[in-house]
């Protein structure tokens, strides 16, 4: 397991989608691998943030001076209010922003609809040394596409295979893919939507369409189950993160990033100049 001191078991193993996985059997209020509560999570997140920041800087530095092509793509999928924005703010916000590439995918434009569904996605994949974050992703096209019947069934089926091929290409080019579904319960989602309506400072976050999507939650659950069955691969695994506790979801995603970066066995790149010579020049300047 990684350098964090607070996990009682490796959440990467506990949250990874494997054979026989059933989304309906995951408790959204659980916090696998972490025995603490919200009061303990603040210190834990700060500890992990220091580790993640150093690893992210090594990844970025290695691409700028070491010439390596490694990069990370974090895919965040969830129902509304599950906490994707909080992950971006509280987890990715702790690292150097110049090494983060964020893409938030909304309803496709007319231009995007004129191309294959992966066209707009491929333009946003991270470059060498970057951590790319997809706030929603190509999976919208087999989730909302299936639930809302925005494409024929045979096209949805084609997309699963296209996604697998697309992700294989990313992995072959040096990308580590971490696919996360933040799993929130209907009860917790109702409370978060209610808060958005009760607080004027959160009205901007509310969309009446969120309730329409909420009413389709059972269909989305089935669509997610199909996604896991069709697109979970050894090189691009899915992780289902219980998200009723925002603090746990943030800790878990932070760990998945740390785990992926530690697996790269990163180090600081060697200088491509004579350090002693430059010290002497600096002293004489």
Overview in brief:
The protein has twelve helices and five strands.
Mind sketching the topology for me?
Layout: H1 11-15, H2 38-66, E1 71-78, H3 84-90, E2 100-104, H4 110-113, H5 119-122, E3 131-135, H6 140-147, H7 153-172, E4 175-183, H8 186-198, H9 209-214, H10 217-231, E5 238-242, H11 246-263, H12 275-284
Parallel strand pairs: 1-3, 1-4, 2-3, 4-5
Helix pairs in contact: 2-11, 6-7, 6-10
Write up what this structure looks like.
With 285 residues, this protein is α/β, with parallel strands linked by helices. It has helices at residues 11-15, 38-66, 84-90, 110-113, 119-122, 140-147, 153-172, 186-198, 209-214, 217-231, 246-263, 275-284; strands spanning 71-78, 100-104, 131-135, 175-183, 238-242. The chain has twelve helices and five strands. A five-stranded parallel β-sheet has the order 2-3-1-4-5, with helices on both faces. The protein is globular. The N and C termini lie far apart (47 Å). 33% of the residues are buried. The mean pLDDT is 95.
| Envelope shape | globular
User: Helix and strand succession?
Assistant: HHEHEHHEHHEHHHEHH
Helix content bin: 40-55%
Rg (C-alpha, Å): 20 Å
The total strand number stands at: 5
Output the structural class: alpha/beta
Strand coverage percent: 5-15%
Number of helices: 12
Q: Largest sheet, described in full?
A: 5 strands, parallel
Which stretches are poorly predicted, pLDDT < 50 over at least 5 residues? none
- The overall pLDDT average reads 95
Strand order of the largest sheet: 2-3-1-4-5
For the record, give the distance between the C-alpha atoms at the N and C termini, rounded to a whole number.
Answer: 47 Å
């Amino acid at each position: 397991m990684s350098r964090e001191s607070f996990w009682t078991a490796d959440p990467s193993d506990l949250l990874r989608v494997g054979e026989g996985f059933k989304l309906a059997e995951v408790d959204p209020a659980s916090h696998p691998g972490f025995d603490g509560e919200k009061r303990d999570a603040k210190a834990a997140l700060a500890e992990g943030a220091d580790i993640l920041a150093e690893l992210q800087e090594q990844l970025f530095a290695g691409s700028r001076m070491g010439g390596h092509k490694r990069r990370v793509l974090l895919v965040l999928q969830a129902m509304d209010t599950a906490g994707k924005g909080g992950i971006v703010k509280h987890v990715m916000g702790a690292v150097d922003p110049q090494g983060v590439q964020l893409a938030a995918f909304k309803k496709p434009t007319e231009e995007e609809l004129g191309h294959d569904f992966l066209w707009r996605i491929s333009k946003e994949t991270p470059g060498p040394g970057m951590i790319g974050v997809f706030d929603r992703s190509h999976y919208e096209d087999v989730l909302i596409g299936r639930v809302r019947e925005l494409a024929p069934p045979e096209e949805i089926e084609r997309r699963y295979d296209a996604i697998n091929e697309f992700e294989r290409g990313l992995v072959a080019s040096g990308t580590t893919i971490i696919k996360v579904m933040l799993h929130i319960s209907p009860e917790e989602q109702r409370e978060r939507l209610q808060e958005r309506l009760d607080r004027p400072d959160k009205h901007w976050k509310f969309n009446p369409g969120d309730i329409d999507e909420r009413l389709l939650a059972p269909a989305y659950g089935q669509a997610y189950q199909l996604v896991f069955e069709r697109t979970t691969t050894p090189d691009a695994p899915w992780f289902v993160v219980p998200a009723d506790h925002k603090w746990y979801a943030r800790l878990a995603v932070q760990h998945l990033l740390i785990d992926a970066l530690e697996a790269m066995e990163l180090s600081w790149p060697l200088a491509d100049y004579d350090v002693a010579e430059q010290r002497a020049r600096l002293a004489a300047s």
